[in-house]
């Protein structure tokens, strides 16, 4: 789904799902096999995977793997009910994750409508799998579009500067999505365009997503960067070392914060 040299939090092929265990980063790169919705539930709850987009896609694909070779003898309506209940179960792994609950609701509606005209239970599972796989593909495409448009927007706002420095908080990259990232995707696009001077990332205490994950991604992608303490951001701003802060919200892909502005993180 993404470049072979890019970090992937989610590695999927039909009937197979592997998740990068983000609890072990940056010291160890290890993948966890997910064979059913129970494995997916545990991976989300235990923070093997994190980041709103990645959580939603993990849940959808965990169930897709489970039903890919399921010996199910019920009716289409019973298959739809089976999928719906499994999705409710997966949502309970992280009830506050908006992307997860939204994706589950859409998938529940899909299988319910499909059951009205389906000839057998297999058709329900097939449709579900195809849509879950499309979610994975679409997320990467959406993220690359965010990066491209965000990069162009910021360049215009900063007078087409060729030396843009950026501060980013938490982790909004490949590890939080299906690939490429949202706010960190904007940084990637700036770097690809040759206009990024440096990216600064904050620790993001108490879980240290910035120091463990974002710094790891930036080094992996060979993007010039510096890790700073959360409390050092204001000093860095005062000294004029960064121009823009792309950040993220629960219900938005990214938000640019020009130097001197403030932002509430959720």
TrEMBL record:
Keywords: Amino-acid biosynthesis, Cytoplasm, Isomerase, Methionine biosynthesis, Nucleus. InterPro entries: IF-2B-related, IF-M1Pi, IF_2B-like_C, Initiation_fac_2B_a/b/d, M1Pi_N, NagB/RpiA_transferase-like. The keyword Signal does not apply. It comes from the Eukaryota. It holds the Pfam family IF-2B. One of its GO terms (biological process) is L-methionine salvage from methylthioadenosine. SUPFAM superfamilies: NagB/RpiA/CoA transferase-like. GO terms for molecular function: S-methyl-5-thioribose-1-phosphate isomerase activity. The keyword Zinc does not apply. Belongs to the eIF-2B alpha/beta/delta subunits family. NCBIfam families: eIF-2B_rel, salvage_mtnA. This is Methylthioribose-1-phosphate isomerase. The lineage of its organism: Eukaryota, Viridiplantae, Streptophyta, Embryophyta, Tracheophyta.
């Amino acid at each position: 789904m993404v470049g072979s040299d890019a970090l992937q939090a989610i590695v999927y092929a039909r009937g197979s799902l592997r998740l990068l265990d983000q609890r072990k980063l940056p010291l160890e790169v290890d993948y966890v096999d997910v064979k059913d919705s129970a494995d997916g539930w545990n991976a989300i709850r235990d923070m093997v995977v994190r980041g709103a987009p990645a959580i939603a896609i993990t849940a959808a694909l965990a169930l897709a793997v489970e039903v890919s070779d399921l010996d199910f003898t019920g009716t289409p309506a019973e298959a739809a009910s089976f999928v719906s209940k499994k999705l409710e179960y997966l949502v309970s792994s992280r009830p506050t994750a908006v992307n997860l609950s939204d994706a589950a609701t859409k998938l529940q509606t899909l299988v319910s409508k499909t059951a009205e005209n389906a000839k057998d239970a297999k058709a329900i599972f097939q449709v579900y799998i195809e849509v879950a796989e499309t979610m994975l593909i679409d997320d990467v495409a959406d993220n690359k579009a965010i990066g491209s448009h965000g990069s162009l927007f910021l360049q215009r706002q900063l007078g087409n500067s060729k030396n843009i420095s950026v501060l980013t908080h938490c982790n909004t990259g490949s590890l939080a999505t299906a690939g490429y990232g949202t706010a960190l995707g904007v940084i990637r696009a700036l770097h690809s365009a040759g206009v990024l001077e440096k990216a600064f990332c904050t620790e993001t205490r108490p879980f240290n997503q910035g120091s463990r994950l974002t710094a790891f991604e930036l080094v992996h992608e060979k993007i010039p960067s510096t890790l700073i303490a959360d409390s050092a951001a204001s000093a860095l701003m005062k000294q004029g070392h960064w121009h823009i802060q792309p950040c993220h919200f629960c219900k938005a892909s990214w938000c640019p914060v020009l130097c001197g502005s403030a932002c509430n993180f959720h």
